[in-house]
Amino acid sequence: MIESYEDITKLPGAKKYFRIGETITREGDPSEGWFVLLNGRVGVVKRDLSITEFGVPGTVFGELGCFLKIPRTATLQALEPTSLLFVYMDIDELILNHPSIAKEVILSLAGRIATTTDAWWTTAHEAKP
């Protein structure tokens, strides 16, 4: 979740609503924006493997592909009725116009990298004979 003096849910964007089981984005789709979770629960799937799920309002996701200008890296699915803010803003515009939110997004990404690295390291060392 992003914690900033500026309310991330007030960024310019479009509110989108998804039913249980509805696909939000598919792995490989173009990344034309990113999302802020307003309420609900989202599952992340990569190549038919469930990676994670989250349900904390204010969570930012889908930003990686948008900021790097690469296709979506995972499929996102609503696990319950879900409301999102779809933000069409690249990293340069975010930094220029909303620096406190940009800082929190960067810190959030860094935390996810640290968690993923730790999980990979643990898995790799458990697999050794």
Give a summary of the structure in a few sentences:
By secondary structure, this protein is α+β, with helices and mostly antiparallel strands.
Look at the helices and sheets and give the structural class: alpha+beta
Helicity range: 25-40%
Which geometry do the CA atoms define?
globular
Number of domains: 1
> What Rg do the Cα atoms give?
15 Å
Quaternary form: single chain
Low-confidence stretches: none
Q: Please state the second-level CATH architecture.
A: Sandwich
Q: What about the largest sheet?
A: 4 strands, antiparallel
CATH superfamily: Jelly Rolls
Count of β-strands = 8
Gap from first CA to last CA? 38 Å
What is the CATH third-level topology name? Jelly Rolls
Order of helices and strands: EEEEEEHEEHH
Mean pLDDT reading:
89
CATH class: Mainly Beta
Q: What is the tally of helical segments?
A: 3
Strand content: 25-35%
Strand arrangement within the widest β-sheet reads 1-8-3-6
Describe what this molecule looks like in 3D.
Helices cover 32% and strands 29% of the residues. It has three helices and eight strands; from the N terminus they run E-E-E-E-E-E-H-E-E-H-H. Helix 2 (91-97) packs across helix 3. The protein has one domain: Sandwich (Jelly Rolls). By secondary structure, the chain is of the alpha+beta class. A hairpin with a 2-residue loop joins strand 4 and strand 5.
